[in-house]
């Protein structure tokens, strides 16, 4: 599932491709992916322009020139492609939004969706999300306060969108590795020094992953050489049996709360 770095990468790239371009057509191949009747959805979009692309947690918000918003959640398996019919991937598309001779293709939206909402509805939809960890208002002290007194395992806390926004399976494992903590360590056993180290790990991992285009391998455009660049830089995620880059021991795969987990049993510690 696309996480913070993947969606931030999409936001950055799409901001340079879509802004102020008029929507010239809409194709819906899966009606359940939108929240309006197909013809109404099309009528509401055609002739509009995207004036701003925002990311919130794992969501993208396309701000339209009439004040409305398109709220996108790709969910499991969802991805985007921007280009022409000739160069798009040979995949089924659920939604296609045309901008002249270029099209934004929404792929793999079996569970994902694109909803047309008012600004207020968008705010309400996202109201239960936790804070953005790389927001300028977040700092080490606030992060420690956010997690102090919480119970449960580290990984389940990191992926809880009500506690903090945007982290999923991949980056929870990468952050735990960077902080030298086991994913199953109990939050109540971590002291302020551990939480401070965890905060630094969050900042380093998410920033590095976004700068390298996240771990999803399909490019956004035919010229895109950035997207997916972090896949080869993952230290533990999907690295079962490979040698730990820090200590040389093999990476272990297990399961926590029905989620697969990757970590080094030698240099990641519990308390």
Automatic annotation (TrEMBL):
Keywords for the protein's UniProt record, in alphabetical order: DNA damage, DNA repair, DNA-binding, Glycosidase, Hydrolase, Lyase, Metal-binding, Multifunctional enzyme, Zinc, Zinc-finger
Top-rank taxon, per record: Bacteria
One Pfam family linked to the record: zf-FPG_IleRS
Entries under SMART domains matching the protein: Fapy_DNA_glyco, H2TH
Domain FPG-type: start-end pairs: 235-269
Catalytic reaction equation(s): Hydrolysis of DNA containing ring-opened 7-methylguanine residues, releasing 2,6-diamino-4-hydroxy-5-(N-methyl)formamidopyrimidine
Keyword Methyltransferase listed: no
Family annotation (InterPro entries): FPG_cat, FPG_N, H2TH_FPG, Ribosomal_uS13-like_H2TH, Znf_DNA_glyclase/AP_lyase, Znf_FPG/IleRS
Domain spans labelled Formamidopyrimidine-DNA glycosylase catalytic: 2-106
Entry keyword DNA-binding: yes
EC number: 3.2.2.23, 4.2.99.18
Names of required cofactors: Zn(2+)
Family designation: Belongs to the FPG family.
Entry protein name: Formamidopyrimidine-DNA glycosylase
Organism, as annotated: Paenibacillus physcomitrellae
Gene, per the UniProt record: mutM
